[in-house]
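anyone seen this seq b4? input:
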Amino acid sequence: MIVMKFGGTSVQDAAAIRKVIEIVRSRLDERPLVVVSAFARVTRLLVEATSSLEQEALLEAARKRHFGVCGELLSGELLARTEAQVEEILTGISGCHDEPTVISAGELMSSTIVSAAFNQAGIPCKWLDARKMVLTTGDRMSGRPDLEKTAAAVRAAASFDGLMLTQGFIATSSDGLASVLGFEGSDYSAAIFGMSLGASRVEIWTDVDGIRTADPRVVSDTCRIPRVSYDEAAEMARLGARVLHPMTIYPARMKNIPIQVLNTSNPSCEGSCVAAEVSDGPKSVALLTIRDSKEIGSKALAGENAGMSLVSVIGRNMGEREMDVMAAFGTPEVSPLSISVTVDAAAAGEIANQIHKKIFL
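predicted toks r here
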């Protein structure tokens, strides 16, 4: 059994969803549980709708987009039923200004449509409600899953022999109210489902060929990292890498489940595997700005690092070469899994490029 999570860009339109269907079709013999995010940019639209005086106009834009995808993928009674379900979801949040409730609608709509598309394509698919499985405590906008109760609920719900599909990100609080796992939390959901079901692996399908040696939006000529350890992946997330949600690693590590990061647009690429054991050495360069995190260090918390960024090289058991490269840009701060320098934010991108070139190219 495997878990396959598809992010917002992987289900952003009818063409993308057709790719997802074919990727999943190739793995049906492994009994996948599919986890989907909201369509790309929909969560941001719903966040705006929570507080906007133009809520109805924003919800109408969401309706138009989702109905358009339905019309391209579905026909007949299935089309009518799916559009009615999407309409019911939108009607349910009209006039509502509770943020977790409103933004949960994105995953509910996308999963309803993608599930129907599987059935339209001749692949029987059972829709599961993540809100009845993932149970949280604490802040409803960044809920902390009760892993024991959640695992029991997941095992009870996931009893279908065929394809099952559910939502990432959304949950229910201990008070019975809508809850979410923090923005970009669908990866975390997928790992929780994998842990609960004892999956052989969790696949995170995104829009890049696995984990890169740096953020391609900042650094040119990045390389794919074939394998990275749980610890290194967690450190990458902590220090600014955005491929995996920071909390994704913990549930997978509990059951020693590998996480495979793959590209929906290039499914033949092997991607990157996050697992317990990998070779030592540098794995990536990460860039963290003050606006991304309040936890660069005690200086940042004291306000002394305003306008500064942290550039880090991440990996286990790095040597003198990496230390010398970093020392050229500042005083290195060394941890068991990274070497970092604090630099002016305006120069951080160029410095990250220089460090990446010296270490990886």
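The chain has twelve helices and 16 strands. The radius of gyration is 21 Å. kinda curious what u guys think
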